[in-house]
Amino acid sequence: MAEEPDVRITVNVNGADCSRDVEPRLLLIHFLRDDLGLTGSHWGCDTSNCGACVVWLDERPVKSCTILAVIADGRRVRTVEGLERDGVLDPVQVGFARCHGLQCGFCTPGMMLTARWLLDHHPDPPPAAIREALSGQVCRCTGYENIIRAVRWAAENPTSVPE
Amino acid sequence: MNYGPLPRKEDARLVRGKGTFVDDITLPGMLHGAVLRSPVAHARITSIDTAAALAHPQVEAVLTGRDLAGTLPGRDFSWMPTLSGDVQAVLATDKVRFQGQEIAFVIARDRYSARDALELIAVEYEPLPVLVDATRALDPGAPVVRDDLDGRTDNRIFHWSAGDKAATDAVFAAADVVVTQDMLYPRSHPSPLETCGIVADADPVSGRLTIWSTSQAPHAHRTVYALITGIPEHKIRVVSPDLGGGFGNKVPIYPGYLCAIAGSVRTGRPVKWTEDRSENLMAGSFARDYHMHGEIAASRDGRILGLRARVLADHGAFNGAAQPSKYPAGFFHIFTGSYDLRAAHCEVTGVYTNKAPGGVAYSCSFRVTEAVYLVERLVDLLARELGMDPAQLRMANLLQPDQFPYASPTGLVYDSGDYPQALRLAMDLAGYADLRAEQAARRERGQYMGIGVSFFTEGVGAGPREHMDILGLAMADAAELRVHPTGKAVLGVSCQTQGQGHETTFAQIVAEELGLDPDDVDVVHGDTDRTPFGLGTYGSRSTAVCGAAAAIAARRVRDRAKIVAAAMLEVAESDLEWADRAWRVRGDPEQARNIGEIAMAAHSGLRLPDGIEGQLDARAVYNPPNLTFPFGAYICVTDVDPVTGQVVVRRFIAVDDCGVRINPMIVEGQIHRGLADGVGIALMQAITFDHQGNCLAGSLMDYLLPTSAEVPSPELGTTVTPSPHHPIGAKGIGESATVGSPAAVVNSVLDALAPLGVRHADMPLTPAVVWRAVQGQPLRTDLAGG
Q1: What CATH architecture applies to the domain B11-128+195-243+250-283?
Q2: Which of B165, B400, B503, B672 has the fewest C-beta atoms lying within 10 Å of its C-beta?
Q3: What is the pLDDT of residues B752-768, one digit of tens each?
Q4: In this structure, which topology does domain B290-397+415-462+626-774 adopt according to CATH?
């Protein structure tokens, strides 16, 4: 409860530097959603079990509900709003829509960011590897099958990936 | 043909992170609410001191139950009606009745300060004896949970029965074989990934109240808000934007919603409240919690003759179940399942306990889930008793196609079905005989492989309005179709999507009827200012009820278009026929007008017959003549390690018949979801309590949801038996797999363990539960240490 002074942080979010004064305890997910208005990342559980809040911190997917905003100071964050490049959807986004890999769409941003990371490091993952990569995230709608298919589709159709 | 696997209109925004969920909404001057909850399950409140919280520099207001009594003139909404006609405390004034019950509401300038200030509220409790064990709820001397109700001296809520008791008893008395089993369908929780929330904006100038909330039934909610608050209904707008799943969790009105409304009225500013995951799991509407005693009677040669069930239904501290008001146990009386039997009788007693309120919610089609589980477990136990194969026993007793419409012994009339075809297809897809051979070979090697079968019949699409209502509101739904001069259309519907893809499916329905492209039809839902009244989306109702309304509205447009087309072509209406997406002159099909051409003419100065208005718009309210009855056959293959208790679901085969499929891609997605539910509910998910009433599943670390690691790739099969009374022959699919699949998983695990003499174990079949069952020391799964 003790009042601590705000901290000035600068985070590069989807390629643009964003500076804000924040409470030291502010969670990254709330910084993104409430301070920056980037509501594509969702908050789901508080305990890093569900993965609705997954974003990239530098080059790795993290659960932004258990990362402080100050930890992101001076680092890069990529959110679902940064998947699309120059008006071209990432193949993962196309794959999710084509394969019915989403229903309510609440887990989808986190799922897609993990999928993008997987494909960047493992361009042709078998279904078992996709299941493994996504096993720290929860989807309540799809039963995962069409998410696996969506990631496979993206692996097989990588052409629109901007280099 | 516009039916088919069309990609969804919703996805363009959702894959870009551009959806609008309730917590995404921010209004100028918006404040944030947080709920103080009881740490104990049963206690008298002796004092609540909010002074320190009010002194917090970021706090604008703190509400207790007393404050709710005076927020709006002449209105005390410290208590509210539940959807079952009970009353529920919004903020506790007398005592708390479950852990997590709402006591106070802090309104602050930011989320974190609101939570901080909760810790500054001092509440003194005088502990009371706690009732957690539903099986003791009716004992003499049990603590009375609801002493607020006039004259209440026990914990009984209702007693309800269906079927012919005398006839059933006679069948049982004469039967060769009777098999009996007690089984618990444990308390579960739908746990949509988005928790519940609201933004309430009461405008002191216009008197209008605008609500953005996680609501599966925005119109019904608006009516209830008007009744509770006294704000005139036409001044209330409920918007249910993109929802992050619902599964029944977002049917009720929760105390937090009313607190936010009161807070906005009090402060004159918008108030947002978003519950956290613990609040969702501990205080949000739960499901199941049915203690069931089932009996099945049969002849020695495997003819099922009768069924009996006695059920104790734990509804928690307030009866917050949402179901048709004449059916306090929902459609549990469909427990005779898919079988041709002579007599059946069931009775259900509902009780209060010191557990979170609710009931029903979680893709259960109003308690059909519990009913299917009961009968499908009993049939498996009967097969074991008779030494018969469980699939063959089912096949021998399924209703035959020529028996439809079929009047069930408990008063339901099944509309249509070809059950043997569905079971045969599932067995073919599974390679059933080969699986049994593999199982036998594995058993020789000491490996425990299980093959579980379930067959289900659901009754969905409630309901005929004369029989089915919630709080007096008949369970009908409506559609309003406007056709613009250029032939583009907007369909407003009273149902609401939580991921089911209504914006796509309903456009396909209208496009099919009018010869339009689905892209030419926009679907509006989830906004009471822009859509007609109806009861909303739950119980697999959307396609079955609102989908019918959409088709009928479109047919009315087509009928109006015929009059205009006749005027355009200067022929008699009787000379026209609808063919190939246009009204055409019989015998001269080149003479034709499509809806686009007709719409422009209908808005023009074209001379129309006397009494005919221009334009084409139409609306329809659909009052279903009966429920629809989807059905299916599921086979689950598991591998069980009796030493560790671990279960691996190897295969899941599902044949579903939901009548006509509008968008098979979406239908299959719904089935995938339900099969994952089956794995989760059967093996992982349960809301358990300790003897003090502490909820032991208050986070996703304790309430385990299935991930991609546990759920196998499903293998689906399709049969199509249209509903004869539905305008497009559709039956509904949203809950089928959640209803049908848990029994297949449990039957599979117990089939695997049969050589070890394990007859039954209650869900969830966690490693501990399985291991204890193998040891012959069954674990009670509703109470820790019980």
Answers
A1: Alpha-Beta Complex (3.90)
A2: B400
A3: 999 999 999 999 999 99
A4: Aldehyde Oxidoreductase; domain 4 (3.30.365)
pTM of the model: 0.97
Buried b (16+ CB within 10 A) or exposed e, B663-672: bebbbbbbbb
For residue B190, what are its two tokens?
Answer: 């739908």
Q: CB of B562 within 8 A of CB of B583?
A: yes
Q: What is the fold of A91-156?
A: DNA polymerase; domain 1 (1.10.150)
Q: How many CB atoms lie within 10 A of CB A129?
A: 14
- For B51, residues 6+ apart whose C-beta sits below 8 A from its C-beta are none
A·B CB contacts under 8 A? 177
The sheet with strand B95-96 has its strands ordered as B95-96, B43-49, B122-127
Residue boundaries of the structural domains of chain B: 11-128+195-243+250-283, 290-397+415-462+626-774, 476-622
Q: Which of A103, A113, A137 should one mutate to test binding to chain B, selecting the residue with the greatest count of B CBs within 10 A?
A: A103
Q: Does residue B786 surpass a pLDDT of 80?
A: no
Residues of A in contact with B21 (CB under 8 A): 39, 42, 106
- Model confidence at A2, pLDDT cuts 50, 70, 90, reads low
Q: What are the residues whose beta carbons fall under 8 Å from the beta carbon of A82, sequence distance 6 or more?
A: A13, A14, A15
ipTM of predicted complex: 0.97
What region, left, alpha or beta, does residue B319 occupy, with left being phi > 0 and alpha being psi -120 to 50 degrees? beta
- The three-state (H, E, C) secondary structure of chain A, written as one string: CCCCCCEEEEEEECCEEEEEEECCCCEHHHHHHHHCCCCCCCCCCCCCCCCCCEEEECCEEEEHHHCEHHHHCCCEEECHHHCCECCECCHHHHHHHHCCCCCCCCCHHHHHHHHHHHHHHCCCCCHHHHHHHHCCCCCCCCCCHHHHHHHHHHHHCCCCCCC
Domain B476-622 fold? Aldehyde Oxidoreductase; domain 4 (3.30.365)
Token look-up 């907007």 returns B490
Is B11-128+195-243+250-283's fold the same as B476-622's?
Answer: no
pLDDT at B360 over 80: no
What ranges do the domains of chain A cover? 7-82, 91-156
Does the pLDDT value for residue A162 go beyond 70? no
pLDDT at A23 over 50: yes
Indicate the class that CATH gives domain A7-82.
alpha beta
Q: B-chain residues within 8 Å CB-CB of A137?
A: 707
Cβ <8 Å between A138 and B705: yes
Q: How much is the mean pLDDT over chain B?
A: 96
Strands B714-718 and B646-657, by their bridges, are parallel
Q: What's the full length of chain A, in residues? A: 163
- With vertex at residue B752, the alpha carbon angle to CA B748 and CA B753, rounded to the nearest 5 degrees, is 120
In terms of Cα–Cα distance, which of A11, A12, A14, A13 is closest to A22?
A11
